[in-house]
């Protein structure tokens, strides 16, 4: 169990930077997720941590040891691939035992360790099956057992749930969390699914075109996004272009459409901004000291345990979400509606180009 540190890590492919000098500090025993859209450099970063690929420049440390150019097997990191990469001609037992056999571990000890790993992933009794005789979820468990049996310092998981159906994905997500907690092992997890990242992680690094935009707990990243990209990547949210028209220190007045909202916090210097407002923070009933905007109802959508009201404010659509049936009763498209928002629930960020 070790800390993992990346210092100014750059990776170029044919002169193009896929990873543009990133710094990360992953603490020991933490489940840390690299989250971002396709092509942002998550897998490349993970492969460099695994020792399957080396940086063009920068350094990687496991604890105090620099491992930047150490081969995979010498640094104690194991990567579980998206497609599991099990050997089809080997039984579950032999698949899991493989790494230990390579290390020439005595037979009796191999047996004990394989049993331990299979028990951990709840696959006791499956020793003699072949991968084709297993479900996708079971194959995933074998892949994880095979990684854990060599007792890695760091376990790396690259989109481990992407080949599973929705129900199994939820189940395996909790399983991975349980195993990580039980062993207290450092896990670095890659996904492009923000909900999965939120549910499973201690901390998340949100990546965008080869850079890290923000690192924080799921709550930090969701509630306090530091850039327009992070705000819009973390689930359904309102991102409203606006202009700063007055400043008084960190308090600003902004304008969008024909609305003026005053007393908002903003510490940037660009006047072109976006207002980030989570739908569940917008109220449909008067709130003291909140700003209010008047528009018309565009849509009312019932989702079961909540309802969304899409309001039209000039040409700007804004989504509000409520769990109160009473508040939306009788609301119909084209009717007037007022949205109330506490000033601290409006995050003002510089507009990204
Ligand atoms: N071996 C390679 N040769 C050339 N370019 C590469 C290579 N591997 C990755 N790239 C490029 O580097 C960039 C980052 O790729 P990477 O696979 O790390 O992204 P990712 O965030 O993991 O995306 P995905 O979720 O689609 O796997 C992409 O533009 C990709 O095309």
Describe, in plain words, how this protein is organized in 3D.
GO terms for molecular function: ABC-type polyamine transporter activity; ABC-type tungstate transporter activity; ATP binding; ATP hydrolysis activity; transmembrane transporter activity. It is a peripheral membrane protein. This is Molybdate/tungstate import ATP-binding protein WtpC. It catalyses: tungstate(in) + ATP + H2O = tungstate(out) + ADP + phosphate + H(+). This protein folds into two domains: 4-229, 3-Layer(aba) Sandwich (Rossmann fold); 236-350, Nucleic acid-binding proteins (OB fold (Dihydrolipoamide Acetyltransferase, E2P), Beta Barrel), CATH 2.40.50.140. Strands 6-7-8-3-9-10 form a six-stranded mixed β-sheet, with helices on both faces. The protein is built from ten helices and 19 strands. It has 353 residues and is of the alpha+beta class. It starts with a strand and ends with a strand.
């Amino acid at each position: 169990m070790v800390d993992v540190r990346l210092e100014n890590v750059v990776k170029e492919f044919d002169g193009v930077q896929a990873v543009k000098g990133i710094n990360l500090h992953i603490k020991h025993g933490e489940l840390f997720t690299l989250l971002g859209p396709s092509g942002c450099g998550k897998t490349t970063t993970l492969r460099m941590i695994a020792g399957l690929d080396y940086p063009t420049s920068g350094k990687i440390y496991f604890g105090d040891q620099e491992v930047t150019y150490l081969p995979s097997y010498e640094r104690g990191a194991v990567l579980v691939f998206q497609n599991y990469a099990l050997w089809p001609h080997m039984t579950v037992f032999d698949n899991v035992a493989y790494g230990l056999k390579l290390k020439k571990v005595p037979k009796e000890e191999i047996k004990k360790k394989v049993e331990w790993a299979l028990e951990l992933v709840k696959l006791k009794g499956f020793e003699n099956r072949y991968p084709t005789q297993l479900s996708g979820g079971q194959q995933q468990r074998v892949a994880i057992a095979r990684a854990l049996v060599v007792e890695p310092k760091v376990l790396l998981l690259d989109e481990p749930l992407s080949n599973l159906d929705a129900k199994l994905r939820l189940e395996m997500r909790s399983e991975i969390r349980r195993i990580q907690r039980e062993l207290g092992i450092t896990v670095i997890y890659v996904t492009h699914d923000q909900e999965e990242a939120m549910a499973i992680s201690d901390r998340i690094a949100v990546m965008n075109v080869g850079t890290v935009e923000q690192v924080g707990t799921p709550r930090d990243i969701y509630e306090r996004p530091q850039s327009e990209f992070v705000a819009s990547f973390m689930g359904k949210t309102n991102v409203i272009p606006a202009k700063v028209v007055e400043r008084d220190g960190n308090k600003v007045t902004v304008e969008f459409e024909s609305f003026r909202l005053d007393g908002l916090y903003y510490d940037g210097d660009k006047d072109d901004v976006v207002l980030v407002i989570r739908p569940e923070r917008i109220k449909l009933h008067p709130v003291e000291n909140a700003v209010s905007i008047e528009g018309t109802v565009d849509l009312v959508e019932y989702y079961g345990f909540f309802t969304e009201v899409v309001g039209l404010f000039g040409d700007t659509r804004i989504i509000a979400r409520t769990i109160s049936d009473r508040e939306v009763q009788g609301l119909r498209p084209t009717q007037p509606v007022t949205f109330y928002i506490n000033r601290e629930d409006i995050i003002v960020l510089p507009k990204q180009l």
